[in-house]
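To: structure subgroup
Subject: Chain for Friday's discussion

All,

I'm putting the inputs and outputs inline so they're searchable in the archive.
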Amino acid sequence: MSFFRLLSLVLCLALLSVFAPAETSAALKSDATAKQKVQAENRKASVDEKLSELEKKLSAREAENEAAENDLKKADQSISEANRRLRTLKTERSTVEQRLSELRQDGRSVERDLREARSRRQTSQGGAGPPRTPQPLRADHACAICTCPAT
């Protein structure tokens, strides 16, 4: 072999020894990077799947909350309506109780006037005999002791 040929062979071997590990290292790095990329993609897919599940759960909870809120509004309206009705009934009851009180007072007044009239009648008759039982009033009567429209 010639000197130049030998020298070129040595140089080639030297170059191969210098660049071969770099290529092997680059290939290994490229392979590792590809594996990391696959792992990252798998993790991203997993995170996306979990995110999708959480979004579905959130959407379901929001729907439940909206339904509960609507039910709460309806209940609040019913309570307000019931409270208004109770206030109306309380006012009506007060009016009825006032009227009942007036009627009771009128009844006591009529009883007092009736006793006084009986007493006057007995006095005018001289107090003789048992007291007479009152006769029912006629529709066209006119007396000074009752409060009927005929007087």
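Points worth raising on Friday:
The helical segments are 3-124.
The chain has a mean pLDDT of 82.

D.
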